[in-house]
Amino acid sequence: MAKAPAITYSCTECGWTTHKWVGRCAQCGEWGSIEEESAQRAPQALAPSSPAEPITQVSAEASVKQATGVSELDRVLGGGLVPGAVILMAGEPGVGKSTLLLDVAARAAEQAAKDGKAPVLYITGEESASQVRLRAERIGAMNQHLLLAAESDVSRIIGHVKSSKPSLLVIDSVQTVADSNVDGAAGGVAQVRAVSAAFVALAKENSLPILLVGHVTKDGSIAGPRVLEHVVDVVCQFEGDRHSPLRMVRAVKNRYGPTDEVGCFELTEDGIFGLSDPSGLFLSARNRTVPGTCATMTLEGRRPMPVEVQGLVVPAAGPPRRTTSGVDSPRVAMMVAVLQSRLGFELDRRDIFASTVGGAKASEPAADAAIALALASAYLDLPLAPGVIAIGEVSLTGELRPVSGLSHRLSEAARLGFTVALIPPESGGGGPKLPGGIQARPCSDIVDAMRSVLPLDG
Known about the structure:
Layout (H helix, E strand, L loop, with lengths): L7 E4 L5 E2 L15 E4 L33 H7 L8 E6 L5 H19 L4 E5 L4 H11 L6 E5 L3 H11 L3 E5 L16 H18 L3 E5 L12 H5 L2 E7 L5 E9 L7 E7 L2 E4 L4 H4 L10 E8 L2 E13 L6 E4 L3 H14 L7 E7 L11 H13 L7 E3 L2 E2 L5 E2 L4 H10 L4 E4 L15 E4 L3 H8 L5
Parallel strand pairs: 4-8, 4-9, 5-6, 5-7, 7-8, 15-16, 17-20, 20-21
Antiparallel strand pairs: 1-2, 1-3, 9-10, 10-11, 11-12, 13-14, 14-16, 18-19
Helix pairs in contact: 8-9
GO biological process, one term: recombinational repair
Protein name: DNA repair protein RadA
Function: Plays a role in repairing double-strand DNA breaks, probably involving stabilizing or processing branched DNA or blocked replication forks.
């Protein structure tokens, strides 16, 4: 008698296989990711669809990037949309994913109408077409060249594409689309895998760029199987705080450009707008000097971002508290220990508060000098000299250590109007390239930095 084929089970997250079903993967620890694999015959050799040719003779004209009309998104994508590329935009609910892509679709439709190209197709699976129209009216995204349809079946979406032949396809969201030939509800592992494979094949066959909206889980990872991130060409993470209008888009994966670029947006009631200069959100008014403030320049990917650090030191009524917001709590604790040990500040009986302006994040070591100077200024009740920015890592001995990208940081600081920069000595092997309008003061340690910008006596 013929032997029955062995049944195997595999994990949809990491690919681990087993001969019996289990609830949890033994390799990656994911629950509910084990699925049965049907027995398949070995593939047979077929005639190739097109002959192989030398890579030097392959035309690159079909993959020229097209600008989206949103400069901050083009910065993240590496110049624009590549025909046939599938881009996944993931983020938390309410962060502005649908608003941004609706704005991108309207701008692309306007440009397509001017160039005589095919219209843009926007597919919504979460809302009705009338609800999307209300949002489009609110943000000014109304355009006759923008087609709108409410569909949640992948076959019907493909039918829309075949009939309208759009120049850009936006799908909101991939977790709401289902394939009738696959068992399970929309958003499940099998459904997301089948739907994503269908969209990738659709994009490649028609040289059609596709923008997908993706949901995230409670821990911030993209919902669905990991294969979704593997099959798409670009994965963008949409980040933002509900209490701040700032939104950031960064490319986690990009086959056509860098993955260290960051796009800045401001989410308002009238829509979402790109911020080529977000310094106004992170810096308070600098026409007056007050104790306990110091500015620094952090790097988000390759983009320098100004951050103002504020410190407050007050006598403690009980056990001393250490409260931080926007800065790394362990690094603040290290700066407090350095100030107390190396400079003799009596901080063990003081409440210490450290925060940033505008919900900015300053977690990299380059912000150490600014944190230390802000706390020292608050403790001594002496304001820093005007126009000062501090960049450098502070070691436990109090020394200032070099940081990466110092020339890039100083150029942005000079553009924003800072006149004095406290930097580590001999940074970048021979010193950084100084732009005009800013004076660099190399400081060997935090004491030297304090003497440079604080009116100390003795």
